[in-house]
Write the structure tokens for this entry.
Amino acid sequence: MKKVKFENVKPALVLGIICLVVAALLAGVNLLTKDVIEKVSYERKMASLSDVLPGGNFEEITPTGENETVKAVYIDTNSGVYVMLMSTKSKFTSSGQSLDATVAIGSDGKIQNVKVTSYAETKNFGDYYKQFVGMDKTDAEGADLCAGITFSSTAFRSMMKDAAAEAETLGGAMK
């Protein structure tokens, strides 16, 4: 049996130490920035809610779980309007990123306001989303698609239908 020389083990040992030091540094940075990241994330979420329903007093409620595109549901305690954070992916998205939106739905089951909050292909999306304002679940099912972004507009239409269905299930629609 051959004897292992330290010179042969030294590179692996040095690499292992470097990995441990880098892992410790990353853990430290994570620990230091965790609260700041959570605060910024919360502020962005609240800003998104306020964008679709200015002046709202939002209380988070539990989604029904029936609509997979519904990520979070809030109710404005002043007006009873539901505001939902939505997320989906189209059948084809070149960037692989999700399509996110915030939707306000009134007690009549109609979409009051919509804001696309994240989508890599927004330049092609234009004002497509604005057609959903004033629609209910049935109207959203029949909304027009947009040429050039057929997969994305299909996914968005489905997401708006899910939002209206969620509000109806939660009791927000009087229909």
